[in-house]
Amino acid sequence: MDTGLMQAAWRREIARIIALLLVFGLAGGLLGHVWAGLVIALAICLALQLRMLRWLSRWVVHPKRVDLPDPTGVWGEVFEQLLEMQKRNRKRKKRLAAIVAEFQSSTAALPDGAVVMSSRGEIVWFNSSAQILLGLRSPQDVGQRIANLVRHPSFANYLAVEQFESDVELISPINEHVTLAMRIIPYGEGQRLLIVRDVSEHRRLEVMRRDFVSNASHELRTPLTVLRGYLDMMEPDTRGKGALLEWKAPIGEMRAQATRMESLITDLLKLARLESDSSVARQELIDVPHLLHRIAEDTRRLSPDRHTVEAAIEADIKLLGRDSEFHSLCQNLLQNAIQYSPDGGAVRLRWWGDEDGAHLSVADSGLGIDEADIPRLTERFYRVDVARSRSRGGTGLGLAIVKHALEHHEARLEIISQPGIGSTFICHFPAHRVQRAQPMVVNG
Ligand code: ADP
């Protein structure tokens, strides 16, 4: 507001009132009623002010219907400033409306569904993809709670747990052939943006890839068994006699390679089975202490002189999960510890529980792993040293199997390693899967 103009207006206003008072005062004085003249002057002033106030109050209520007068003086300045403000607000509103319209048309064109939700989980706005993917109806569903419209246990759990760093996947509420990946992005003061993607094609390709690997492995198994059978028959006898004596070395090599292929096929099938079953492991009670003692004993038998296997197993801790998967992951970790340790090395197996859950650790005093390789170890066919892995009968799939088996048990793998000193693989199982009896430590 221009203060100079306003001050001039005030001066004019006061001068006008004084002039009015003087004129009426003088006129009253001439007629012998000075006070009456002054009272009339003040009454005129008051009436003028009240008229302006009435105009203003009507304009405030109906700014579009009532035009502001164009008086001079203070009121003139006030009305002019009000009109200026109104114009500015209109412009700002237009600009905001254009931004909102642009945002809405750009998000409406998105192939992903977008739903804006209030802090109480009520729908504020959604685009047309959200209508198609979730079956939301406009405008009936605006104001409804999203949890009432998308009724799915995993989505309800996702909303309750409020861990929005990852997606939640579910079958579309309107089409059972469509798989949706949903993600909530919190913003502002408790508001949330829900992004919905159709991942059916992605999942279909994944299933196709899995089925292909599994079918190919099955198909390879039969011819390999035949080849293996003939190779066994062709092996020259132990006394060094037989027509194929000069073929002894090549046949031995062929049998070794056939064994390697068999292990590869077995591991590929195991992995395909683990992958195809994405559900969290069933709640069977695994007698982990018994199982670990058995695996440790088997390992000692297979590597009697070359390695020592120590086991510290808390006998009272059992786990809810899947026996075969737990067995497979322990066996893989122990086999690796033996494979990647020099002769005479010690392998330590530990199973214990605490307030965070239960933990399985397999430590060796072997080759160790470079820090840069650690994050990639659970990738399929990733080997630090391919030749060494192959020469020791490794398939490159062991830790991928461990990773999947752990995922089924909501567990995570921690790898601590130092080249030349040794490695420790620790599996952390959550507390809700642990069952305890009386505490007791058994060393064996
Ligand atoms: P592989 O069949 O080759 O052992 P894995 O998936 O079991 O395949 O392991 C992947 C790679 O991780 C191995 O090739 C090896 O380089 C490394 N590795 C696994 N366990 C150990 C260990 N205990 N010590 C050193 N390196 C290991």
Describe the structure.
With 444 residues, the chain is of the alpha+beta class. It has 4 domains: 3-103, no CATH class; 110-198, PAS domain (Beta-Lactamase, 2-Layer Sandwich); 204-276, Helix Hairpins; 284-443, Histidine kinase-like ATPase, C-terminal domain (Heat Shock Protein 90, 2-Layer Sandwich), CATH 3.30.565.10. It is 51% helix and 19% strand. It contains 12 helices and 14 strands. The chain has helices at residues 3-30, 34-61, 73-108, 128-134, 146-149, 153-161, 200-234, 248-276, 288-302, 323-339, 386-391, 398-408, and strands spanning 113-117, 123-126, 168-171, 179-187, 191-198, 284-286, 308-314, 317-321, 346-354, 357-364, 412-418, 422-430, 434-436, 441-443. A 6-stranded mixed sheet has the order 11-12-10-9-7-14, with helices on one face. A 5-stranded antiparallel sheet has the order 2-1-5-4-3, with helices on both faces. It has a 3-stranded antiparallel sheet with strand order 6-8-13. Helix 7 packs antiparallel against helix 8 (248-276), helix 9 packs parallel to helix 10 and helix 10 (323-339) packs antiparallel against helix 12 (398-408). The longest helix has 36 residues, at 73-108. The chain is elongated. The termini are far apart. Bound molecules: adenosine-5'-diphosphate. The site of adenosine-5'-diphosphate (ADP) has 22 residues, from helix 10 and helix 12.
How does the SSE layout of this entry go?
Blueprint: H1 3-30, H2 34-61, H3 73-108, E1 113-117, E2 123-126, H4 128-134, H5 146-149, H6 153-161, E3 168-171, E4 179-187, E5 191-198, H7 200-234, H8 248-276, E6 284-286, H9 288-302, E7 308-314, E8 317-321, H10 323-339, E9 346-354, E10 357-364, H11 386-391, H12 398-408, E11 412-418, E12 422-430, E13 434-436, E14 441-443
Parallel strand pairs: 7-9
Antiparallel strand pairs: 1-2, 1-5, 3-4, 4-5, 6-8, 7-14, 8-13, 9-10, 10-12, 11-12
Bound molecules: adenosine-5'-diphosphate.
